[in-house]
Amino acid sequence: MSAEISHHWPVPPREGYTVDDLLTLPDLPPHTELIDGSLVFVSPQRDFHSIAIDLLVHGLRSTVPPELKVRREMTVVLDQRNGPEPDVSVVRAAAARSREQTYFQVRDVLLAVEVVSPDSEARDTDTKPHKYAGAGIPHFWRVDMAGEDQRPVVHAFELDKESRVYVPIGTFRDRVKLSVPFTVDIDLTAIDHL
Asked: What global pTM score does this model have?
């Protein structure tokens, strides 16, 4: 006789969840995000997703100035109803206060990066960039897997502060070379060796 497995799914409050709920609810799956008061659970990621994040984190850390830090998969509090988790973030060093912290405030984020996955394509290409721009994050990168070699393609955007929308500043296939938010030089073909 096998034991019956029971699941206890959280019941959302009438007004939806808040960032406080996201940060304190027990037993949420890893990488749970809060979008418009709803909890979003992430499905298992492809190998490309993992190694693209590794490549970008290493590349950004190689040139990041001391007043900034590079972090992966940390919640960014946009407002009380939105706590997405960019795949990579560049934050002000002063915001990294403790090894135990689990989130950053949006005012401390200079760059948010999303590596597109099949289950998150709409969120990574529409919902999250729209929310990041509305919250004032100055730079956004969307990373897609492209071509037969399945290498990353980085689409870089900069915030138009008046309209609060992102404008494209470049698409990079083999190498990301930018001067904003700091000098960046990342060899995207290095993914072949990861």
From this structure: 0.94
